[in-house]
Design brief:
- The protein has 2 domains: about 200 residues, CV3147-like fold (3-Layer(aba) Sandwich); about 120 residues, Beta Barrel (CV3147-like), CATH 2.40.390.10.
- About 30% of the residues lie in helices and about 30% in strands.
- Strands 15-14-13-12-11-17-16 form a 7-stranded antiparallel β-sheet, with no helix packed on it. A 5-stranded mixed β-sheet has the order 4-3-9-7-8. A 3-stranded mixed β-sheet has the order 1-2-5.
- The longest helix is centred in the first third of the chain and has 15 residues.
- This is DUF917 domain-containing protein.
- It comes from Salinicoccus jeotgali.
Length: about 350
C-alpha cells in the first residue's frame, strides 16, 4: 500500500503515455485533472490485488472516444460525480476500490480522479497491460466476463446505460453513442471480485508506469534504461516525413512514415494506428504487430509521442515491447491481433 501524491501523478502520466502505444488520450490533461483532484480531495491510496478483502467489489472507469477530442473537451468533476453515482445505482452495489481498464494515456489517470473524489483506493493493476482502441479488448471480456451494463456520462449532464448480448456489440453501440455525446465520454464498466482480478487482471501496471516515468525524468537519454526495464527492442531511428491522421467513428486513424537516421539511414519505417499504434513495417516487412507494443519516442529526450501529436520533422525512436502473455492465446490474437484490424499478417511475437 502507498499513497499517490502529485509527484507520483507526474511520473505516472509520463509512464502511462509510453505504455499507451500512442493512444489512450493526452496524459498531460489527465495529469492536471488528477493533481487538482488530489489537492482538493486528498491523496489516493494504492493497493495490490492481494490487499483487497475477499468480498470486495472493484469498478473500472475510463474515457471512451477519440483522443484528439479530449484536448478541446475536458470533463468537469461534476461529470465524474454524476457517472459514479449512476454506476452505483445501476449496479446496486457499493464500490470498494477502483482500477484502470488500461495501462495507457489518460485512462491510467482518470480512475485516480474517481478514487480521489470518492475516497476509495486504487488497485495496482489493469486489464490490458497497454492501451487498445475498442471496448471488448480487455482480459476480463476475453475470459467471458461481460462488459455491460456500461454507464456513460458527458459534460452536459447526460447519462446513458447500455446492456448488450456480446462485448463486440457494446463497442459498436458505444461508438454511435459517443458520437452523439460529443466525441468523448466518461464510462464505468465491470464490477469485479477479488478472485476475478487475481485470475485475469494484469498486475502492478500502475506502479510499473510510475517507474517508467521516473526513468524518463531521471535520465537525459533514457532509452537504454527503458530497454532493460521493459525488455524492449529499438526497432528504428528516423525522422517523420509524412503523417496522415483523421477522426473517424470515434477513433483517431492514420499512418506515419519515417526516413531512417544513424544506422537506419538506408531504411524506411511505416506505422499504422487506430488511436494506438498497431503495426510497424520496416522496408515493407512487418517488424512488430499488435498485441505487441509499438511506441514512438523523441530521439533526444526519450519522451513518448502520442498519435495526435506526431508532426513532420520529428526525430524519433520506435521501440517495441512484448505484450503480456494473456494476449498470446488463440482467442487473444483473434481479439486484438493484426487480422482483427484488417491486416494480412500473422502475429509473430517480438
Amino acid at each position: 500500500m502507498k499513497y499517490l501524491d502529485e509527484e507520483d501523478i507526474n511520473k505516472l502520466a509520463l509512464g502511462a503515455s509510453l505504455l499507451g502505444t500512442g493512444g489512450g488520450g493526452d496524459p498531460y490533461l489527465g495529469k492536471l485533472m488528477a493533481q487538482q483532484a488530489i489537492e482538493k480531495y486528498g491523496k489516493v491510496k494504492m493497493i495490490e490485488v492481494e490487499e483487497l478483502d475477499s468480498d470486495a467489489k472493484v469498478a473500472t472507469f475510463a474515457m471512451v472516444g477519440a483522443p484528439t477530442v479530449l484536448i478541446e473537451k475536458i470533463p468537469s468533476f461534476e461529470s465524474f460525480t454524476l457517472l459514479y453515482e449512476e454506476f452505483v445505482k445501476c449496479s446496486d452495489n457499493k464500490i470498494d476500490a477502483i482500477m484502470p481498464i488500461e495501462a495507457g494515456g489518460v485512462n491510467s489517470i482518470i480512475p485516480i480522479i474517481f478514487a480521489a473524489i470518492n475516497n476509495v483506493p486504487l488497485v495496482d493493476a489493469d486489464a490490458m497491460g497497454r492501451a487498445f482502441p475498442e471496448m471488448q479488448m480487455d482480459t476480463f471480456n476475453l475470459n467471458g466476463i461481460h462488459n455491460t451494463p456500461a454507464v456513460f456520462a458527458d459534460e452536459k449532464g447526460n447519462t446513458a446505460i447500455l446492456n448488450t448480448k456480446r462485448g463486440d456489440w457494446t463497442e459498436k453501440i458505444t461508438r454511435s453513442l459517443t458520437d452523439v455525446m460529443g466525441g468523448s465520454v466518461l464510462n464505468g464498466v465491470y464490477l469485479l471480485s477479488k478472485d476475478e482480478l487475481s485470475k485475469y487482471a494484469i498486475i502492478n501496471t500502475v506502479s510499473m508506469s510510475i517507474r517508467v516515468g521516473e526513468i524518463l525524468l531521471e535520465y537525459k537519454q533514457p532509452i537504454v534504461e527503458l530497454e532493460k526495464f521493459l525488455n524492449g527492442t529499438i526497432l528504428f531511428q528516423g525522422k517523420i516525413h509524412d503523417v496522415e491522421r483523421r477522426t473517424d467513428s470515434g477513433f483517431v486513424k492514420g499512418t506515419v512514415n519515417l526516413t531512417g537516421l544513424n544506422e537506419d539511414y538506408k531504411s524506411e519505417c511505416h506505422i499504422e494506428f487506430q488511436n494506438e499504434n498497431l503495426i510497424c513495417l520496416i522496408d515493407g516487412v512487418p517488424r512488430c504487430v499488435t498485441p505487441d507494443l509499438i511506441i514512438v519516442l523523441d530521439l533526444e529526450t526519450g519522451k513518448p509521442i502520442t498519435t495526435e501529436k506526431l508532426r513532420f520533422g520529428m526525430r524519433c525512436f520506435v521501440l517495441g515491447l512484448p505484450a503480456d502473455d494473456k494476449w498470446k492465446t488463440e482467442k487473444g490474437i483473434e481479439t486484438v491481433g493484426p487480422g482483427y484490424f484488417g491486416y494480412h499478417y500473422d502475429y509473430v511475437p517480438l
